[in-house]
Specification:
The protein is globular, with a radius of gyration of 16 Å. The protein is built from six helices and six strands, in the order ββαβαβαβααβα. The mean pLDDT is about 95. It has about 150 residues and is of the alpha/beta class.
Length: about 150
């Protein structure tokens, strides 16, 4: 599902409004999906959605993406607070352009996240066209190596 209810400065609606107006419909959709055998239910919500994570989980949503780093989403902190939340994303898309040192820095928590399970790493949105191929290739080779290692 797609629901951009957050921005770079936090939720665009209060938790109370989410509970009253959105939760009943999310619950209905999630219950229907689960009744049809769909047990993994992700919501795409950009921005800082920290305040809404427990509300999404309470409706039956099992995962969130893209975990926009520039909005303050920290995949390790989120994982520690919500160990059962499935997470996709969490890689700062624009930082790939800054070279190997920066790539190594932001990939550092990926190995731990992969071991914790329920995590698919990828850019926290579309990779911008200004990211040089050389850096993108290095990023993908390093990330693929981590994924392969975690799969053993």
């Amino acid at each position: 599902m797609w629901e951009d209810v957050s921005s770079g400065k936090g939720s665009m609606i209060s938790p109370a409004v989410f509970k009253e107006f959105l939760s009943p419909y999310y619950r209905k959709i999630c219950d229907f999906m689960k009744s049809k055998g769909v047990n993994i239910i992700f919501v795409d919500t950009d921005g800082d959605c920290n305040a809404l994570i427990p509300l999404f989980l309470g409706t039956g949503v099992t995962g969130l993406y893209p975990m926009e780093v520039s909005a303050g989403m920290d995949i390790v902190k989120v994982r520690k607070r919500y160990p059962n939340l499935q997470i996709m994303g969490g890689i700062p898309k624009s930082d790939i352009a800054y070279g190997k040192k920066r790539i190594d820095e932001f990939l550092e928590p990926v190995e731990w996240m992969l071991k914790s399970g329920g995590f698919i790493p990828f850019g926290d949105h579309f990779i911008p066209p200004e990211v040089p191929w050389k850096e993108f290739r290095y990023y993908r080779e390093e990330l693929n190596s981590m994924i392969d290692k975690a799969g053993r």
